[in-house]
Amino acid sequence: MNANEVKQLLETALKDCQVIAEGEGCNFQVVVVSREFEGLMTVKRQQLVYAHLQEAIASGAIHAVTMKTYTPSQYSQL
Prior knowledge:
By secondary structure, the chain is of the alpha+beta class. It is 44% helix and 29% strand. A 3-stranded mixed beta sheet has the order 1-2-3. Strand 1 (17-24) and strand 2 form a beta hairpin. The longest helix is centred in the middle third of the chain and has 18 residues, at 42-59.
């Protein structure tokens, strides 16, 4: 799996989101910006993202993911 495939997977799974994915092999870093994160604590946001990556993780296509999650308003303040 490559970074673009991770990006496409998450953008398809999460409504109205923006994903920046980097990495190679089976280790990736992602920044996910989504309205779905409104009102959710960091752990719940990460669980939501991991749920969509679970199949790739189980198959070994993804070994490690480092993520940052933001709402659109949080991201615009960076």
